[in-house]
Amino acid sequence: MTDRRVVIAGGHGKIAQHLIQVLTADGDRAVALIRNPDHISAVTALGALPEVIDMETASVDDVAALMHDADAAVFAAGAGPSGGIARKDTVDRGAAVLLADAAEKAGVKRFVQISSFGAGEPVPDDAGDTWKAYIEAKTAAEEDLKRRSHLEWTILRPGGLTDDDPTGHIALSAPPLERGTVPRADVAAVIAALLQSPSTAGKTLMLTSGETRIEDAIEAV
Questions:
Q1: What's 31-70 look like in SS3?
Q2: pLDDT confidence band for 1 (50 / 70 / 90)
Q3: For the chain, which end, N or C, has fewer CB atoms within 10 Å of the first or last residue's CB respectively?
Q4: Contacts of 141 by beta carbon, 8 Å cutoff, 6+ apart
Q5: Which of 49, 22, 53, 23 minimizes the C-alpha distance to 36?
Q6: Could you report the per-residue pLDDT of 73-108, keeping only the tens digit for each?
Q7: Which helix (H) or strand (E) holds 204?
């Protein structure tokens, strides 16, 4: 039991919902930043404290006020497949930068950012406009985070996300890593473990399903 307070941007997302359950089971308190008030009951039922805030319009002070006593922050927000090209920038980049700014202002050092396979790499010429915008936004968010010396950040790039049952076994390494898929529940378990692994600060890690237990994989990196 660790008794930490973890602020999660995108608190009603699929990965975030799994993460809330993992954190709650470990004795931690998840603070779920959500845009839609209709999601309050859902995240509360999972064990989180809901805070309604629109990360596309909020100020740094607005977000920092919700992080004043937090031990860590996780960026798990995303515009989603129907979000449109413009929202790839305002959410996948802009909201990530906002959360990092707020964490610095609130003195929250530990920061885990969910990115994606493909980030930090050239976008193929035949990629669609939406995918191109998404990868460019994720890459820009990563580059912003890497410039911050006051945050103990870890960037996690999961492969293709599935809703399969968790396996507890993964492949985790610095880039590159062969493409593959990974259940969202395993991504959440990895994030929770990273939050307890300060030695992973300053690392960019690729994640897919694999043969190694999560704890062993994190120790190895």
A1: EEEECCHHHHHHHHHHCCEEEECCCCCCCHHHHHHCCCCC
A2: low
A3: N
A4: 75, 92, 93, 96, 97, 113, 115
A5: 53
A6: 999 999 876 678 999 999 999 999 999 999 999 999
A7: strand 203-209
